[in-house]
Amino acid sequence: MNSTCSHTVNQRKKVVLVDDDAFMIRVIKMKLEKAGYEVFSANNGLEGLEKIKEHKPNVVVADVCMPKMTGWEMCREVAACPDVAPDLIIIATSRIEREEREKINQVLNARFMEKPVSLKIILNTINQQFKQADGRKDEA
Amino acid sequence: MTEEGKSLGALLVVKDISRQETAESTQSEFLSHVAHEIRSPLNTIKSYTELLMDGDVNGQVTQREFYNVITLETERLAKLVENLLNISKIEMGGLSIRKGMVRPLKLIDNCIAAVTSQAVQKDIEIKKILPDNLPSLDIDKDLIEVAFLNVIGNAVKYTPEGGKITIHVDEEQDNILFHTKDTGPGINEEDLSHVFDKFYRSSEAHIQEQKGTGLGLSLSKEIVHLHGGDLRAESTVGAGSCFTIVMPTQTEDLQRIFK
Description:
Chain A has five helices and five strands; from the N terminus they run βαβαβαβαβα. By secondary structure, chain A is α/β, with parallel strands linked by helices. In chain B, a hairpin with a 2-residue loop joins strand 4 and strand 5 (175-182).
């Protein structure tokens, strides 16, 4: 599968990564930037929320267990500000957090991925989101 | 009931299950933490391997860095499993303790030797101050070394480059006190009150930068307690921390502690 998206430099889609694990930020950023996305990163939910408000990204990729503000708390805050809500939010989580998943699904377009996550699946999910969005625009 | 089927009274059984519920909730919280702590290094190992396998990492230096991260995370995972097993054994009372007489100087030297390469890499000086004629300790050498190594290893981990660690040993009544003092950034009051809690990790940036299992100090405290001793922490933000292991020289029979 071709995992590279076809945006030109000035049309680059924005992604905000929120993870307290610097190792993970590094590799996800590397993978997404190589595929043509413009990536911003934050190392906790609070900082993530600021980055989302500042850059209004198309996609957010977030961890759950983070200091200062968890991924769930950040999602609730984002959902409360519709003008900055991304088209898609990908949350790396675990099976036991079913209740939280359902709540977030009601207010945001979210996909949940169980750790250990696959970088290819993250990238393909993001690409798929834009493919669908672009398809809808073409139809209109 | 009477022969005619009439009720003579009622028996009401009330059972307080609040303790059971608390224990279940604590256990569930603990398992959730364990799952998270295991998944984090697995996540890193999987992602770094994926990028290397896909040929997304260019340059030998970067590739070596990636292999290094994979090795470090694998070691962290192994350490986590080892700590969990030890904690679980201690809490279940199933840890077998093999006591023997150990010289404090030997104990300290072994631990310093284990962290020397990390200290040298960071240009950290480790100084020891030991009085003469310290009595030997009747301890499980391997277990106590785990406790000491966690404390001294943490000092090396959190002390910035060019810093200094002093291991000062002295006697006080029937105890030997091992102070490990560092020139690190110190621990704030809130974090200090949780420093021995399982899986507690400070949200301070300099702590988050360092990888840890969040179990080392908790395990160390349990090990020291098993020997009738104590582990204490003092710290001042900006002025470093001091962890003190107190070991009794007149140890009780460990079998009696277990009872």
